[in-house]
Amino acid sequence: MTNALYDTGRNAFLTGGVNWTSDTIAAVLVKVTSGYTVNLATDQYLSTITSGNRIATFTPLASKTGVAGVADAADVTFPTVASGPAAGAVVLYKNTGTDTTSQLIAYIDTATGIPVTPNGGDITVSWDNGSNKIFKL
């Protein structure tokens, strides 16, 4: 797979359900080998990704910007990630504090720093610095 937006996330942008710059946007590292299988057409909330497939979370993204439909933010560091299965992707979501209402936004599996196998240390994921940054609507 390649980086993509969830259909329900795109719809949330169009209907005012997600505001990139003012909402709390968070990231979760996910296990994809024998783990989470993304369905961009139907997956809607963080609850779709079971806790066993969540390797680490980071909240909130800092220094978010949105210019000409391009979303960007500071690179993220997941601190002291326990040794375990490899993380194959990062999922961005609007953090409402409740898994069943936290809207999934983007599935990213090509950022610098993933895939990665946690070893107890920090994991840093660096967003693309090209013209599309994290993603472009």
Key attributes of the depicted protein:
28% strand; 137 residues; 3-stranded antiparallel beta sheet; 1 helix; single chain; 5-stranded antiparallel beta sheet; mainly beta
Overview of the molecule:
- This protein is mainly beta and 137 residues long.
- The chain has 1 helix and 10 strands; from the N terminus they run βαβββββββββ.
- The two termini are 18 Å apart.
- A 5-stranded antiparallel β-sheet has the order 1-8-7-2-3. The protein has a 3-stranded antiparallel β-sheet with strand order 4-5-10, with no helix packed on it. A two-stranded antiparallel sheet has the order 6-9.
- The chain is globular.
- It is 7% helix and 28% strand.
